[in-house]
Amino acid sequence: MRKGATLTEDIFEQSAAKMREHGMTDMAVAQFKRLYEVWRNEEASSWIREEEVEPLTGVPSFHDVYETINHDKAVDAFAQTAFLKLNGGLGTSMGLDCAKSLLPVRRHKARQMRFIDIIIGQVLTARTRLGVELPLTLMNSFRTSDDTMKVLRSNKKFHQDEIPMEIIQHQEPKISAKTGLPVSFPSNPELEWCPPGHGDLFSTIWESGLLDRLEERGFKYLFISNSDNLGARPSRTLAQHFENTGAPFMIEVAKRTPADRKGGHIVRDKVTGRLMLREMSQVHPEDKDDAQNIDKH
Question: How far lies 129's CA from each of 14, 181, 234, in Å?
Answer without folding.
Answer: 53, 53, 12
